[in-house]
Design goal:
This protein has one domain. It has 249 residues and is mainly α. It contains eleven helices and no strands.
């Protein structure tokens, strides 16, 4: 008796048959995000966005230190935090010089490390909310990949900041945390109203882009309604923004 023909299993219709490269994922995040997020269901790799943010942040710090100077960067950062500024002014000249020198080194390390920590925490919060609150078909690894790729607009903001600083952006008020005029907070003096400054800084064009991508990504990867995904992502953004705003007072 002849054996029955083997019927090949059909691929998941929601997943591309041929996987995207990490480079293709990055490009598609900006021009065709659905392709990137569908591919995350195939592979939850997220290392490329982290490599890019590390490279961009390192170049930004280097250019800012060359064009603006570490002393001015530290002074601007402290001005945005009056309590820390008051403590700094109590130090001796030698202690201040030492702290500035250390800050110059920390700038290179802090941005990629802090970014990674934020991604890990946000991925956990979103995973738990989508998994247990919306019954999404999601894993922590896929959540982390969605968060990482959705954060690429912030890397683009870093690139624009590099260009602005290299072109001679004003050193007055320049901070690495808020380097370009992409949000209302850029035009404010933080000590005048720290609470409002945090709120205004979060209304950043690139951050809002990131939030939209995150919601789209979880809707696709987690197979939940788009409206539900936006509600969850925006909800967490509001909670975290208000928390930091209250802590800044």
């Amino acid at each position: 008796m002849a054996a029955a023909p083997v019927v090949p299993s059909s691929p998941d219709p929601g997943t591309p048959s041929a996987g995207l490269s990490q480079t293709a994922r990055v490009i598609d995040t900006f021009i065709a995000p659905k392709k990137t997020f569908l591919d995350i269901r195939r592979s939850a790799q997220w290392w490329m966005p982290f490599v890019l943010i590390t490279i961009v942040s390192t170049i930004l710090v280097f250019v800012a230190e060359q064009k603006i100077g570490v002393d001015k960067l530290v002074a601007n950062d402290l001005h945005a935090r009056p309590k820390q500024e008051a403590q700094f002014e109590k130090l001796t000249s030698e202690q201040q010089a030492g702290q500035i020198k250390v800050s110059g080194v920390i700038y290179y390390i802090a941005f990629p490390v802090i970014t990674l920590l934020i991604w890990l925490i946000m991925a956990g919060l979103q995973f738990a909310t989508f998994k247990f609150g919306a019954n999404a078909d999601i894993t922590y690894g896929r959540s982390l990949a969605v968060v990482a790729y959705s954060g690429l607009p912030m890397t683009l903001r870093g690139v624009l900041a590099i260009i602005a600083v290299a072109a001679g952006a004003s050193a007055d008020g320049f901070t690495l945390n808020n380097p370009i005029a992409s949000n209302p907070g850029f035009f404010m003096d933080p000590p005048n109203n720290p609470f409002l400054y945090v709120i205004a800084s979060q209304l950043d064009v690139f951050l809002l882009w990131t939030i939209a991508l995150t919601a789209i990504g979880f809707a696709i990867v987690g197979k939940v309604k788009t409206a539900t995904s936006f509600a969850i992502v925006i909800g967490w953004w509001l909670v975290i923004t208000l928390l930091f705003a209250f802590l800044s007072k």
